[in-house]
Amino acid sequence: MTTTAEIEEQQDDETGSLADWYIKTVLAAELADYTPVRGSIAIRPYGYAIWENIQAYVDRELKATGHKNAYFPLFIPMSFLQKEAQHVEGFAPELAVVTHGGGQKLAEELVVRPTSETIIYDSYRKWIKSYRDLPMLINCWNNVVRWEMRTRPFLRGMEFLWQEGHTAHATSAEGDEEARLILDIYVRFIEGQLAIPVVAGKKSERDKFAGADITYTMESLMRDGKALQMGTSHNLGQNFGKAFDVKFLDADGEQKYPWSTSWAVSTRLIGALALVHGDEKGLILPPRIAPIQAVIVPIWRKDDERAVVEEFLGRVETELRAAGIRLEVDRRDTVTPGFKFNDWELRGVPVRLEIGPRDVAANQVTAARRDNREKSAIPLADVSAGVHELLDTVQTALWERALAFRAANTHEVSSMNELRAGLESDPGFYWVNWCGSDKCEDAFVELKASIRAIPLEEKEAHSTGPCVICGSDAKQRVLVSKSY
Ligand SMILES: [Zn+2]
């Protein structure tokens, strides 16, 4: 049986033009830089500012739904991982293990957390005694380490930043409701703020999280027709409760194991923004997540022009800052305006405002959209409303463009030959009928693709024909594609 991780490795061998563009852009736009440690990147201030905006939104939504932040240790005793059989099997190949500390060999090896279920459940055993202690709704903002063989900045790293939520509930239904609630929060965030359409669904048995009963996933289509998993939310059933002997006294007087969930989104979303919205000039950031929503570039030739432009610019700047627009004024006098235009386009700033002597004379600014480079004039009197409106327009345009791209690259096929030919010549999302067998799932893998998601809604999951691979009765429709 080939795992999805193995396919991903095979696919990493194919270096496409988007893959090259991606690395160049991440470095040139100063989102991140390499360090001497393979797979470990330095996230530069511009990249980190995107992460801070992601954190701010997600943190607010999690708190609004009753979750509280906490922190658990980076080191986990090796024996903890071994308590949940599937969990250790899934993570063993990726573990970084500490064998020595302070010059001494450790009595028990410590694992650098690849995820925190095990260390958290050890604490939950002490904290959860009664149904009154439930639900336990905890989220952590931290870093994790996974010894990945093939790495790519943001998309797959040895160390990355994320949030990991860990909740425990009194009933199975509540646990599943929680996993679905979080999935909904993620979908709203990714679609509404990042302007990236997602297909929400379940992972197949083989691709679910190590230790989960159900893994809910979100899959988005990148510009080269490959899928990227945007985040996951797991219904863990009672697996970790049992493995760590977490028991609570329920209202009916019975001792029970809690039902739990875990869920995460990571700095991978920064990579997704680049892969979905960029173009040959560089990044294009959706205004709602962009660290800099508008940049002002003053233009002058002679000193007397400079004074006039500066004075006018000052008024525009004051107005826009007061209106809460995340603004940068590029006053560098060592580079030309043309250089600045390219520089901010590379960084994907959604709106550029040019102020030259002619703009001052006309009492306006010239606004240029990053997404389609259209220019328009905004009168000084309307400047904050005008820029806000333009930012909304860009946000909507990016969303609609991504949606149209996905629609144009989503296909339905009914035979294996069609699927093979399609994946080769026209990579994208393929909806197919699947009988549910391992053998047919292997066949997708042989086509260097995989089941990305099984629809959640009965109506969408319902198959209307035979299995695309073997021709026998299909159990359900599934989304198949190549992936990052
Ligand atoms: Zn089949």
What does this molecule look like?
- This protein is of the alpha+beta class and 484 residues long.
- It has helices spanning 4-13, 17-28, 45-64, 78-81, 85-91, 117-127, 172-192, 239-243, 268-277, 303-322, 337-346, 357-362, 383-408, 416-425, 438-446, 458-461, and strands at residues 32-34, 41-43, 68-69, 75-77, 96-101, 104-112, 136-145, 159-169, 199-202, 214-221, 227-237, 248-249, 255-256, 259-266, 294-298, 327-329, 351-355, 364-369, 375-379, 410-412, 429-434, 450-455, 476-481.
- The strands form five sheets. It has an eleven-stranded mixed β-sheet. Strands 16-15-17-18-19 form a five-stranded mixed β-sheet, sandwiched between helices. Strands 4-6-5 form a three-stranded antiparallel β-sheet.
- α3 (45-64) packs across α7 (172-192).
- The radius of gyration is 25 Å and the shape is globular.
- The model is unreliable at 1-14 (pLDDT under 50).
- It binds zinc ion.
